[in-house]
Amino acid sequence: MAIREIIEIPDPRLKQVSSPVESFDDDLRVLVADMFETMYGAPGIGLAAIQLGVPQRVLVIDLQPEDPDAEPEVCHAHGDEHHTHQPVIREPQIFINPEILESSEEATIYSEGCLSVPEIYADVERPSRIRARWQDLDGKAHEEEMDGLMATCLQHEMDHLEGIVFLDHISRLKRNMAIKKLEKQRKAA
Ligand code: NI
């Protein structure tokens, strides 16, 4: 497994439409493992393969990288300094060739962010509930209805497969403000 570079706007690859996965082979397993390692390292809750520059219809999501209710533990792994860490509870989910079969009329607004649009957040309205179908690493098909953050996150990640980032859902004025902010941060860094 390896952490790979996450590409950021305005990299033109983020506008590319990703291709369906046809072979469920070892290369795909390596890609997915790298995607999880990169996402957890960022940290983030979702990642599309194109964010690593790979134009394939592959997404990883984990809404719970940390357990907010868990008791902090003292970690002795850093020599004399004692850091406290939350125990990490992973719920990795893999979506290959995902499709949305149905979307609710009812919509929900979430403040979204994206590892390819660092430090920028904006309210985006999306259907509250979706029925989705996808394949797992073995090519087996799954179908499920989802709501809440999971529905939002899957729709956000699926947008990446069509070359869309969340800023494309907000007004041009707000988008330009967000991009200016991002450029300013980059200059300061
Ligand atoms: Ni994103």
How do you describe this structure in short?
The protein is α+β, with helices and mostly antiparallel strands. It contains three helices and nine strands.
Question: Beta fraction of the residues?
Answer: 25-35%
Describe the largest sheet: 5 strands, antiparallel
Please give the count of helices.
3
Radius of gyration: 18 Å
Oligomeric nature of the chains: single chain
Specify the structural class.
alpha+beta
**Unreliable stretches, pLDDT < 50, 5 or more residues?**
none
CATH-level-2 architecture: Alpha-Beta Complex
**How far do the termini sit from each other?**
29 Å
Q: Please, could you describe this protein's structure?
A:
With 189 residues, this protein is α+β, with helices and mostly antiparallel strands. The relative contact order is 0.17. It has a 5-stranded antiparallel sheet. It has a two-stranded antiparallel ribbon with strand order 3-4. The chain has helices spanning 26-41, 148-161, 172-188; strands at residues 46-48, 58-61, 73-75, 83-85, 93-103, 107-114, 117-127, 130-135, 141-146. Bound molecules: nickel (II) ion. Nickel (II) ion (NI) binds at residues 114, 116, 156, 160.
